[in-house]
From TrEMBL:
It comes from the Eukaryota. One of its GO terms (molecular function) is dioxygenase activity. This is Prolyl 4-hydroxylase alpha subunit Fe(2+) 2OG dioxygenase domain-containing protein. Pfam families: 2OG-Fe_Oxy_2 (PF10014). InterPro entries: 2OG-Fe_dioxygenase.
Length: 297
């Protein structure tokens, strides 16, 4: 297995805010991923305007997460609640992100619409959409949300200028007698993003070894890996985010990733949950020809 498995931080607290972002960008360019512990990331978010008083309200938004649905009203992954909104960023301008309305449609109020591969089916009905509950508008003024957006903006700006869309998703995965608790039923995959960030918000009654993340080389086939694959050098890293604001940063076009099932630490204590903030940064569709530089590798 690659030596990058041992990398577990950037010593962000030992350098200035500006140098910390530059250091993270450099590490991503070198290793294509970075695991940043909360002890380093939270101080960096404080430098970007987060406040201690904003933490609890921010974590509370996960209580509003509901399973995504298709256009027929059928729940997709009933054990996986989501909140999703898109934000427009322009690294040539200020670090303010603006909520995008391009992904909303009048017939689905309060939701954003994600277009998917039309070959996806639910029974006899072809499914063309995923409907996600939007983040409440109050989230846009939460100091933690704003700090994360500013950090993403600066990280992208460290490599190039241009327009980006950032998809912010709150995921709550539940494991119980009736809930599967698998955050990545598709197994090893990519999200066609320039940059993907997975940031832990909360774990409740989750077994210590469960709910981890894996990073794979591009040579690893997509789908559920075999035992042989897990033992191969195609597995670049295996790590469990355990503390709030532990985070995994990925250059999504340069590596693949996978989230592992959540298991209950104590079945008598009720369901296990894992709350994560996932951020997927992409070029707007009209700007695909402008790829290059920035965190795109």
């Amino acid at each position: 297995m690659s030596n990058t498995l041992c990398f577990c931080g950037l010593l962000l607290s030992s350098v200035s805010d500006h140098n910390a972002v530059a250091s993270l960008h450099a590490r991503l360019q070198q290793d294509r991923f970075a695991i940043v512990p909360a002890s380093e990331l939270w101080p960096l978010l404080l430098e970007h305007g987060a406040t201690e008083t904003g933490r609890s309200p921010f974590a509370g938004y996960w209580d509003l997460a509901t399973p995504q649905r298709d256009e027929h009203g059928i729940e997709i992954y009933p054990y996986k609640g989501t909140l999703t909104s898109y934000y427009a960023m322009d690294t040539s301008r200020s670090d303010d992100a603006q909520r995008s309305t391009a992904e909303t449609e009048p017939e689905f109020p309060g939701h954003v619409v994600e277009h998917i591969d039309p070959t996806t089916v639910n029974g006899d009905n072809a499914s063309y959409y995923r409907l996600h509950q939007q983040w409440p508008l109050s989230a846009d003024s939460n100091t933690v949300m704003l700090a994360v957006q500013r950090l993403v903006h600066r990280l992208m700006a460290a490599g190039a200028t241009g327009s980006f869309h950032a998809m912010f998703s709150a995921f709550r995965v539940t494991r119980s007698e009736t809930a599967l608790g698998d955050p990545s039923p598709e197994g090893v995959h990519q999200d066609s993003a320039v940059l993907t960030i997975v940031m832990l918000m909360r774990r409740h009654n989750a077994a210590h070894f469960s709910g981890g993340s894996r990073v794979w080389s591009l040579e690893q086939p997509s789908g559920k890996p075999t035992t042989e694959s897990v033992r191969s050098d195609r597995l670049l890293a295996s790590h469990t985010l355990r503390e709030p604001f532990d985070a995994l940063f990925l250059l999504d076009r340069e590596v693949k990733h996978e989230a592992l099932p959540v298991l209950q630490a104590d079945e008598a204590a009720g369901p296990a949950t894992r709350d994560v903030l996932t951020i997927e940064v992409r070029r707007p569709p009209r700007s695909e020809e402008a790829r290059g530089g920035t965190c795109e590798g």
